[in-house]
Amino acid sequence: MEQLFPLAQTDVLVPLLNRLEPSATPVWGSMTAQQMIEHLESILLHSTGDMPVQVLVPPEKLPQMIEWLHTDKPLSRGFRNPLVKEGRNRYPDLETAIQHMLAALAGFFRFYTENPAHQAIHIVFGPIGYEDWQRFHQKHFRHHFTQFGLLEE
């Protein structure tokens, strides 16, 4: 079976997170390392919820977007997610943020084990289920880990 979210495997993820320093400078963008981790946590939580969000892509283009999601193409650098609110950190330090993100990741897998038919709305892909959320999270984690030099492009 195809591994849809290999960056979620503990033996892959934890060594990458252990290399992330609070003072890490991103290759692009303005997020701090802690903001990036908190952002990943937020999107993980969103993918298991029922938060109503506006889909930014016209309905007739959603099939093309889902087709793209099923490719190996990376997320582009310049996308601004309107759900992301910049500001103060939610947690006191990077280590605490990482622990919350890891808990959200475990919660993601647990949620979809218990609710396999659930779909949550993604602002670009529309309502998607477990497999497509895994595909998205893989691209999203890769994007931000590349941003902070934890992975090569």
Provide the descriptors you would attach to this structure in a database record.
153 residues; mainly alpha; two-stranded antiparallel sheet; 2 strands
Model description:
With 153 residues, this protein is mostly helical. The chain has a domain at 54-72 and 94-145. It contains 5 helices and 2 strands; from the N terminus they run ααααββα. A two-stranded antiparallel ribbon has the order 1-2. α2 (33-46) runs parallel beside α4.
Offer a concise description of the structure.
This protein has 153 residues and is mostly helical.
Radius of gyration: 15 Å
Distance between the termini: 25 Å
Mean pLDDT: 94
**Strands across the major sheet, in which order?**
1-2
Secondary-structure content class: mainly alpha
* Percent of residues in helices: 40-55%
Overall number of strands: 2
Separate helix tally: 5
Largest sheet: 2 strands, antiparallel
